[in-house]
Specification:
The structure holds two protein chains of two kinds. Helices cover 43% and strands 15% of the residues of chain A. Chain A has 14 helices and 14 strands. The longest helix of chain A has 23 residues. Chain B is globular. Chain B is mainly beta. Chain B contains two helices and 32 strands. In chain B, a hairpin with a 7-residue loop joins strand 30 and strand 31. Classes of the chains: A alpha/beta, B mainly beta. At the A-B interface, helix 11, helix 12 and helix 13 of A face loops of B. Chain A: Its EC number is 5.6.2.2. Chain A: Its cofactor is Mg(2+). Chain A: It is an enzyme of class 5 (isomerase). Chain A: GO terms for molecular function: ATP binding; DNA binding; DNA topoisomerase type II (double strand cut, ATP-hydrolyzing) activity; metal ion binding.
Chain lengths: 372, 400
């Protein structure tokens, strides 16, 4: 097997407490199949589906091409994972895909299988020494320290992008300095994360220095585990979410906060203290109504689509599952109900001032920190 | 152009609230400020007509208005007093109200519908319909005779209620309306139900959908089919029907839409009667006058449009709200119209004078619902509710 592309030096060596279990689970499967080969029997691997929870037997050889491909792909992933575990190295799902693009066909196919394997083993993806490709960006005067003695300074210069470290387990701690807040931003484009980072909002905010983070849409596991680690290490750091006022924005915020439904088996990927900074219904509706200081000449809201309405009702059902839970989520529930009532959604830009979000953010963060 | 003019005796203050809006306030040493009246420059009231002829920069309305007040200030306005407030009637926003001769039903973002007695001074909670709508309830309607009610939840679920025949005054379930199942001609259901209205006896229910359809159902007959189905656009692509009303005689259905359109349908012929010149912006409330001769419509334009239902003509506008209008209701005689808005103001309008005769703002938070209580005592009453989660009751001041 060709050697893996090397990761950022900061990620090595890794300390994975589940290495032993992961290796033994993988070797169990390999041994069973070796045994079957010796006795010229059919080979098979049992995999649990994350969607249904059902156990599926993948056979080889088989008449179905898709099953044969799946068997080969799983075996390949197990093999790569085992190598990485032995070498104490982390590989990305992207690395796996590029080992044999013809076999895997797509990145999504690899991602799905990796998560199914982790789910079957009742382990996190990380326990297999596999992480998603780097996705999250960070900007702020924070230093991330790693177990191997290296450090990552997250204050970008000259518009450079600083990637969120892919392996949260390699982090030993954080130096926050005077940082008091962290803002998770739904989107990266220039009006949002990139614009704020370029104007150094993380240094110049009225509420004092902070950290900006984005995972460009739905957050990946690495970003969520990084934020979880940051929160457990620095529990006093206030965490806010800046997302579109629409059901997808809410869903993205909830993915940061509560984790992802398809990755329920992953540990340490939630962010309970995350609170919704906005824009909220009041910001959006007042802007549309053209009253007060937020008056603007054009309507910045759009009507909800049927899909938006269904998604909003789905989130409501999820959050109003039982009475006690509903009490905790009253604020979120109310925002969704108002969204449905007014049949209106708006992007983050609805509250900017000719493309400049900082005025609104300064006000919102300062207010939120006063309440807390 | 907010500015103040102070009378030399410090007795009156005239404030220019808005370009089209003048407020006359009397300063009272013991009770502080009291709003005497609010005028709309563009209404057809004689006093205002004079003001309208003056260029804005030369608005010397002080003497004019004060003169009017010395002549007889009370003739212009009506006085309502807050008689009672039920604080925190719900745990979240109250989205809808429906009044019977003896009680007021309220629905909110939580799953419970509350019933408060309006024939007792303390407005006690007499019944809670728990778990009525799991995802919260946004619309309530009650029949004029006070015997049938209907409610719609955020999941599109519709429940029907009836007053117990035992005379206990309790509401009990009267089944539901499965809009998804009731597909007519294989059109795949009525879609997500939103606004509702009930006929005088509670037999007929009119509803709107997300995709702009208006349906009329017979609640006493087969609820699996719609009696009438009106399209307001090409099939399934009409503008969101935000509100609906049935005339008391059941002859007409009116609907207001997100596009600003207002339609009147004839339930006898099953046809569109009028497509009224709308308000351009979303229409959040439509209401037929008790006699059915007028239709009022209002919403995000902040204007209340009055239409003649006989000829389908736009006969006037009531202007004065400076925020979105969320709710409308006619009083029993059809002389007054009550409106509630996003900035927490409730206004009473004289239809005859085409002017606002009272403005109340207990809260600066949005009112989602305003309702007159059917007149059972000498003094007329109304109730307002919204973001502040309380039910506020007003009574017309006596001796005016």
């Amino acid at each position: 097997m060709a050697s893996m592309p090397t990761q950022d030096a900061a990620l090595q060596p890794i300390s994975n407490p589940h290495t032993g279990i992961a290796i033994s689970k993988i070797e169990e499967i390999l041994a069973a199949n070796l045994d079957a080969l010796i006795h010229t029997q059919h080979l098979s691997i049992s995999i649990c589906s994350r969607v249904t929870g059902n156990v599926q037997q993948i056979w080889f050889p088989t008449l179905r091409a898709s099953e044969a491909r799946k068997f080969t792909a799983i075996l390949q992933i197990l093999h790569l994972s085992r190598e990485a575990l032995f070498a104490g190295r982390v590989i990305t799902m992207r690395d796996i895909y590029y080992q044999d693009p013809e076999l895997f066909g797509s990145q999504q196919y690899v991602n799905g299988l990796v998560d199914d394997i982790a789910f079957t083993f009742e382990l996190g993806r990380h326990a297999l020494n596999i992480v998603a490709a780097d996705k999250g960006l960070i900007a702020g005067a924070v230093t991330v320290n790693f177990h191997n003695g290296t450090a990552l300074h997250c204050n970008p210069h000259h518009g450079q992008n600083i990637l969120i470290p892919a392996d949260a387990h390699a982090i030993s701690g954080f130096d926050l300095g005077h940082i008091k807040w962290l803002l998770v931003i739904e989107k990266e484009p220039k009006a949002t994360f990139r614009g704020l980072a370029a104007s150094r909002f993380h240094d110049s905010a009225a509420a004092g220095p902070g950290i900006l983070v984005t995972a460009k849409g739905y957050p990946d596991l690495s970003t969520r585990q990084f934020l979880h680690k940051l929160h457990t290490s620095c529990p006093l750091l206030a965490m806010y979410a800046l997302v579109d006022f629409d059901p997808h924005g809410v869903r993205i915020m909830l993915t940061y906060k509560d984790g992802s439904r398809s990755l329920q088996h992953e540990q340490n990927a939630t962010l309970d203290p995350l609170s919704w900074l906005g824009p909220r219904s009041i910001d959006v509706l007042e802007a549309r109504m053209g009253q007060g200081s937020t008056a603007r000449p054009v309507d910045t809201t759009l009507p909800l689509t049927l899909g938006d309405r269904k998604e909003a009702v789905r989130i409501l059902s999820l959050k109003m599952g039982d009475g006690d839970e509903a009490m905790e989520n009253l604020d979120l529930i109310r925002e969704l109900q108002i969204m449905l009532l007014f049949n209106a959604k708006a992007e983050i830009q609805a509250v900017d001032d000719a493309g400049d979000l900082t005025k609104w953010l300064d006000n919102a963060i300062t207010k939120a920190m006063e309440i807390a | 152009m907010p500015s103040l003019w102070q009378h030399q005796k410090d007795a009156y203050i005239v404030s220019f609230m808005h370009q089209s809006h003048i407020r006359v306030i009397r300063q009272d040493n013991s009770e502080g400020m009291m709003i005497l009246d609010e005028f709309c420059l563009f209404s057809c009231n004689p006093t205002n007509a004079i003001i309208l002829t003056l260029p804005h920069q030369h608005l010397d309305v002080s003497t004019l208005i004060l003169h009017e007040y010395t002549e007889g200030p009370v003739t212009m306005s009506k006085q309502y007093l807050t008689t009672h407030t039920v604080d925190n009637a719900h745990i979240t926003d109250i989205f809808s109200l429906a009044a019977t001769p003896t009680a007021i039903l309220s629905a909110s973002g939580s799953s419970t519908i509350h019933v408060h007695a309006t024939n007792q001074d303390s407005f006690p909670l007499i019944q809670s319909l728990s778990n009525a709508h799991k995802l919260g309830c946004h619309h309530l309607a009650v029949s004029r005779n006070g015997k049938v009610a209907a409610s719609v939840g955020f999941a599109g679920d519709v429940k029907i209620w009836k007053l117990a025949e035992s005379g206990s005054g309790e509401w009990e379930s009267f089944g539901d309306l499965d809009a998804e199942k009731a597909s007519e001609k294989g059109k795949g259901g009525a879609g997500e139900l939103w606004g509702i209205a009930l006929s005088e006896d509670g037999q007929y229910l009119a509803s709107t959908t997300y995709d702009g359809r208006i349906n009329v159902w017979d609640l006493f007959g087969d609820r699996g089919v719609t009696l009438r189905e009106y399209e307001t656009g090409s099939a399934g692509s009409g503008s969101f029907g935000l509100c609906v009303d049935l005339s008391r005689d059941g002859e007409y259905t009116a609907s207001g839409h997100q596009s600003g359109a207002v339609y009147v349908f004839n339930n006898d012929t099953g046809r569109l009667q009028y497509s009224l010149p709308g308000l351009v912006k979303p229409v959040r409330a439509v209401a037929f006058s008790p006699a059915g001769t007028r239709l009022a419509a209002a919403g995000d334009s902040g204007i209340i449009a009055i239409y003649d239902t006989k000829h389908g003509e736009h006969v006037g506008n009531l202007t004065g709200h400076t925020a979105w209008i969320t709710s409308l209701d006619w009083n029993d005689t059809g002389e007054y119209l009550l409106s509630g808005s996003f900035d927490g103001k409730a206004k009473v309008w004289s239809i005859e004078r085409s002017a606002c005769v009272a403005t109340h703002s207990e809260t600066d938070k949005a009112l989602w619902a305003v309702r007159w209580l059917p007149k059972t005592v000498r003094n007329e009453m109304f109730c307002t509710a919204g973001v502040n989660r309380s039910l506020t009751f007003y009574r017309e001041a006596t001796g005016a």
